Amino acid sequence: MTVTLDPSTEAGPGSPKPGSPVRLAGLRRGYGQVVALDGLDLDIAPGELVSLLGPSGCGKTTALRIVAGLEHSDAGAVLVDGKDISKVPANKRDMAMVFQSYSLFPNLTAGENVAFGLRLRGVSPAERRKRAGELLELVGLNQHYERYATQMSGGQQQRVALARALAIEPKVLLLDEPLSALDAKVRVQLRDEIRGLQQRLGITTLFVTHDQEEALSMSDRVAVMNAGRLEQCASPDEVYTRPATPFVAAFVGAMNRIGGIASGTEVEVLGQRLVVTQAPEVPAGSKVTALVRPESVLLTPATAGNVRVARSSFRGPVTRVTVELADGTEVDSDLPSSAAVDLRPGALADIRFAPEPVMVIQ
Amino acid sequence: MTAVVDLSATPRTAARRKLGKGRVAAWLVLIIAALYFLIPIAASVEFSLRGVHDTHDLSTWENLFGQPGFLDNLVTSLELAAGTVVITLVLMVPTTAWVHLRLPRLRRLIEAICVLPLVIPAVVLANGVLVAFRGGPSWITGTPVILALEYVVLALPFTYRTLDAGLSAIPLTTLVEAGRNLGASWLTVLLRVVVPNLRTAILNASILSAAMVLGEFTIANLLLMNTLPVWTVQAGQQDGEVATAASMLILIVTWALLLLMSVFGQRGARRTGRSS
Amino acid sequence: MAETKFRNRRQLDLLGLLPFLAYVVVFLGVPTVSVVVGAFQDDAGGWTLSNIGAAVGDPYLHAFVVSTEISALTAVIGAVVGLAIAFAVSASPPGGVLRQVVSTASGVLAYFAGVPLAFAFIAAIGSQGLVTKWLGALGLDITGFSLFGFAGITLVYLYFQIPLMVLVIFPALEGLRPQWQEAASNLGASRWQYWRLVGGPLLLPPFLGALMLLFANAFAAYATAAALTNGIIPLVPIQIAAVMSGNVAVGQENLGNALGLGMILIVGLALAGYAWMQRRTSRWLR
């Protein structure tokens, strides 16, 4: 089900409200022994969509909930429009959140759900109905006004939840893994719709997810988190091609780990010399691990090749070929399927790496 | 009416509601409730420990078993409990297993039937028994046998639910087919395949029935039978201390049975790696 | 060929239910039907409505009124107090002490009703009771308070009404997702507004259902009242017992059946209401 963003059906005032800048400053939060957040600093520009990406337990949801006011921080502050709102109660923060599941109030219809925030603000019933109707149309569900949550699919429920959040024209939109509980196809579709709406309305948005594909495709910037700390916050392209830390390199996209020998500003891997992104502090000649992306691993079939194909997995336009090195290490290579035709399990091949700088760890 | 609900099971919701300003009120309610529920128990204990002239001793308890009629009625109640349990198991274990095995679509109907005893008040049931079975064979209707037969009905809501839950937790069809495949008769399958796998559920159902029987007063009283609760009330007309002690004894035995149930339940779960 | 075999198999399967059905019919169905039918019979075996007539006249109407009043009162008080307790437990940390204590207590107190309960209260606030003596030492004379009166029975009945309420309403309270309160708060609602617009409406059906269950429970209760009052208090179950033991005028045996029929109808109606409310609740309570 696609939504066409026709300007003539735009909800709310004539022009989108300019977004509000958000700053997270030094947020800390612990639960007994566990440290959920260890000094998080993040600036979000007006109208920007920033994803908080990381494995479970990295603190991304905690950070989001602190911004929303649903949890308090042990230290640090949250500033919106330059003002510290850390002491402001959750229901006065002018933010709206979309949850992963069970978002909608089950005793209200979709329309009543969307109108909920308006009702609290004293908007008249007639005006409420009108605005709720417009918002539901914006998310493509204007036929569902009278339906209840249990009568709608997961994707539809999340759309209504989004409409409900947008109804109050919040300064900040907070999304807590809103797509995680949905089917893959619905997820992809809704992803684009959310991004489209967000851009059109120019709302500053903080989006929590553990799915890197989601983060990379939707965000203006991606903030990769690990163990309560921010590892890197940059554009999707930069996070992918120029990861700042080994964690980011390994978490975002797939990464091979191949043994090599350090040599100043270069590393020697399987007979090939590659420039390193940052010289490790080890004496030359010591063993290090090079991180290479599968798409930077080039294989050519060769009868006297130095690696053997272990398995090959056809994925449509790309085939992932896994080869085994002499020392038993497995290396993944993503090749255009046409180039992988002769690389069947058991075949021998030559391995080369794309001449780009690689990240090296001890 | 009893219901078996585990309040301490971890709820599906991770975050908990904060009480905020209501905290004081909540604790006040809990404290008053605790007092309300504990004082009568404490009073019972104290009452049963009263000796002569404001002293406290164990005289009432020591003399309890010697009270005229006590032992006989205690034995009757215990026999009734055992009898009810036996009849219940013989009737309900095969029935519930059969429903699960061959008539799964009728499960809701059977469940509805087994809830009926809750709709008919015990008083009315007793009345009905008196009216309907007036002319019945006296070895049934004139003796506690009729009580056991009716107690089976009274216990149906709990016993069926317990056995039903236990059966839902085991791969019944597979087990039975395997047994039959190896040449076992239906009886053998029942005794050697179904029952051993239902140990916990059977134990729970038995204990719930026994506990109910030990404390049951209404039907026993109205059918003029001599069970321990009936004796207790009669004794209470003369000696409140004896009656209080006797009723406490009933409670203690009941709670001991319930404790047994939870202990065995946990042990069974640990052994088999699951809980029914 | 296979079809007839299947049909016979099906009939054979149903045969397996015969012992159970026969048992239920004989030991539950027959007594119940006897009561219902007997309500409309006179001593000679003919049909009459005189039993019904007598049952809704004095003094039995008074018993119905009192039973209804006590059942309603203990249901309302029990529901409110039970809800408060359940609420406090629901807000406590999961796996904490409070939950364990209340869980065990509710299960254990359920077996208290009847004979032990009656004697426990006599031991507490009877004329020789512990609390009576304590209050007497403080200068408060409560020996005038009768356990056998309206107030006394109410106080005693609450002992099993409250735990029942806690058990019944707790799943509904736990079923209120925290996301709903958080979303409401997010959209600008205060706690009071959340309860008024979302939480309250969601809890209303299970609350009403529980009320009806408590009502049925109290109305049907016999043992506690009998053990406590020895038949003095005018409650419908007590009246039925009196008729059964022959404490009525000759020719009124079937009156007991009429009273029983009345009880079945009232209790059945209340439980039907409870079941209906449960179905409405299950729409959102997973």
Structural class designation of chain A: alpha+beta
- Looking at the overall shape, the CATH architecture of chain C is Orthogonal Bundle
What does the average pLDDT of chain A come to?
Answer: 87
Say how many strands of chain A there are.
Answer: 20
CATH architecture designation of the largest domain in chain A:
3-Layer(aba) Sandwich
Number of helices of chain C: 13
Give the overall pLDDT of chain C as a whole number: 86
- The CATH class of chain C turns out to be Mainly Alpha
Report the biggest beta sheet of chain C as strand number plus sense, adding barrel if it closes.
Answer: none
Q: Strand order within the widest sheet of chain A?
A: 6-7-8-3-9-10
CATH topology of chain C: MetI-like fold
Share of helix among residues of chain A? Answer: 10-25%
Task: Write out key terms for the chains shown.
heterotrimer, B: 276 residues, MetI-like fold, 13 helices, disordered N terminus, C: mainly alpha
Secondary structure: elements and pairs:
The complex is a heterotrimer of chains A (362), B (276) and C (286).
Chain A: E1 22-31, E2 34-44, E3 49-53, H1 60-68, E4 75-80, E5 83-84, E6 95-98, H2 110-120, H3 125-138, H4 154-167, E7 172-176, H5 184-201, E8 204-209, H6 212-218, E9 221-226, E10 229-234, H7 236-241, H8 246-251, E11 256-263, E12 266-269, E13 272-275, E14 287-292, E15 297-301, E16 307-315, E17 318-324, E18 330-336, E19 348-353, E20 359-361
Parallel strand pairs in A: 3-8, 3-9, 6-7, 7-8
Antiparallel strand pairs in A: 1-2, 1-4, 4-5, 9-10, 11-12, 11-14, 12-13, 14-20, 15-19, 16-17, 16-19, 17-18
Helix pairs in contact in A: 2-3, 2-4, 3-4
Chain B: H1 22-48, H2 59-64, H3 70-102, H4 107-119, H5 122-132, H6 138-141, H7 145-168, H8 172-181, H9 186-197, H10 199-215, H11 218-222, H12 228-236, H13 240-272
Helix pairs in contact in B: 1-13, 3-7, 3-10, 3-12, 4-7, 7-10, 8-9, 10-13, 12-13
Chain C: H1 2-15, H2 18-38, H3 50-55, H4 60-90, H5 97-109, H6 115-125, H7 130-137, H8 150-175, H9 178-186, H10 191-220, H11 223-229, H12 236-244, H13 253-281
Structural account:
The complex is a heterotrimer of chains A (362), B (276) and C (286). In chain A, helix 5 links the parallel strand 7 and strand 8 (204-209). Chain A has helices at 60-68, 110-120, 125-138, 154-167, 184-201, 212-218, 236-241, 246-251, and strands spanning 22-31, 34-44, 49-53, 75-80, 83-84, 95-98, 172-176, 204-209, 221-226, 229-234, 256-263, 266-269, 272-275, 287-292, 297-301, 307-315, 318-324, 330-336, 348-353, 359-361. In chain A, the strands form 4 sheets. Chain A has a 6-stranded mixed sheet, with helices on both faces. A 5-stranded antiparallel sheet of chain A has the order 13-12-11-14-20. Helix content of chain A is 23%, strand content 33%. Chain B has 276 residues and is mainly α. Chain B contains 13 helices and no strands. Chain B folds into 2 domains: 24-57; 67-272, MetI-like fold. Chain C has 286 residues and is mainly α. Chain C is globular and about 75 Å long. The mean pLDDT of chain C is 86. Chains B and C meet through helix 1, helix 3, helix 4, helix 5 and helix 7 of B and helix 2, helix 4, helix 5, helix 6 and helix 8 of C.
